[in-house]
Specification:
- By secondary structure, this protein is α/β, with parallel strands linked by helices.
- The protein has 2 domains: about 150 residues, Rossmann fold (3-Layer(aba) Sandwich), CATH 3.40.50.300; about 60 residues.
- It is built from 9 helices and 10 strands.
- A 6-stranded mixed beta sheet has the order 6-7-8-3-9-10, with helices on both faces. Strands 2-1-4-5 form a 4-stranded antiparallel beta sheet, covered by helices on one side.
- Helix 3 packs parallel to helix 6 and helix 4 packs antiparallel against helix 6.
- The longest helix is centred in the last third of the chain and has 18 residues.
- About 40% of the residues are buried.
């Protein structure tokens, strides 16, 4: 579904990604892992068109994304939940979802209801302003907003960051159910190793902007993973 081929990305004269390649199959839950500062978010920004690669190509369902703007990539079926989660703080949870439906060519009220169903906690908070949500609730709302657009590939950047353990488990269950029940492809960037390994069937690990491990998560050597991922 998503093919990243020999991707190089730089910020000015500083190169961040070096010859990164990966293949995300349809219906797969795929994880990009690595410590802070190794280029994980840079990779996602390049996939979404926020950053322009200095080399390499990105294909989605066989289409070269190189000349497509970020909004065109969303229309093509990608949805991105950034690490910042970004909300409309003065809007209620319900209004935050409705505004995406109204602005999207792909969204509709059925998709909004499905997103709320996936996160039952949000149903109790529909009238609360988004700016008053806890970190975990804001993360759930951010994922729900992305799902309203009915993506074929959902991209999540560090969905567990700064979240209490009980809501991490709720988000984990929701992501797993979404993948298993709908077959939606999910690309997950995550530093929390146990969370990533429980969810993902396939992976890459980045270190200093390069792919240092790839393949099935079931085949990972625990000692090597801890060497790569633990500070």
């Amino acid at each position: 579904m998503l093919s990243v081929q020999n991707l190089d990305v730089a910020y000015g004269p500083t190169q961040i990604l070096f010859d990164v390649s990966m293949e995300v199959p349809a219906n797969e839950l795929f994880c990009v892992m690595g410590r802070n500062g190794v280029g994980k978010t840079t990779l996602l920004n390049a996939i979404m068109g926020v950053l322009r690669p200095t080399g390499g190509r990105v294909f989605f369902e066989g289409r070269d994304l190189g000349k497509m703007h970020p909004y065109q990539r969303v229309k093509a079926g990608l949805a991105y939940v950034p690490q910042t989660r970004g909300s409309f703080p003065q809007l209620t949870v319900l209004e935050s979802l409705k505004v995406v439906v109204d602005a999207s060519d792909r969204g509709d009220r059925d998709a909004m209801e499905d997103a709320i169903e996936l996160f039952p906690r949000l149903r109790k908070l529909l009238g609360r302003k988004a700016g008053l949500l806890s970190g975990g609730e804001a993360a759930q709302l951010a994922i729900a907003r992305a799902l309203v657009t009915k993506p074929r590939l959902l991209i999540l950047d560090e969905p567990t960051e700064g979240i209490q353990p009980s809501i991490i488990l709720e988000i984990e269950d929701a992501i797993a159910n979404l993948n298993s029940s709908t077959g939606m492809s999910i690309l997950l960037v995550e530093q929390y190793m146990e969370f990533a390994l429980r969810l993902a069937g396939k992976h890459i690990v980045l270190d200093a902007g390069e792919v240092v491990s790839s393949g099935a998560t079931a085949d990972l050597d625990d000692a090597r993973m801890r060497e790569l991922l633990l500070l």
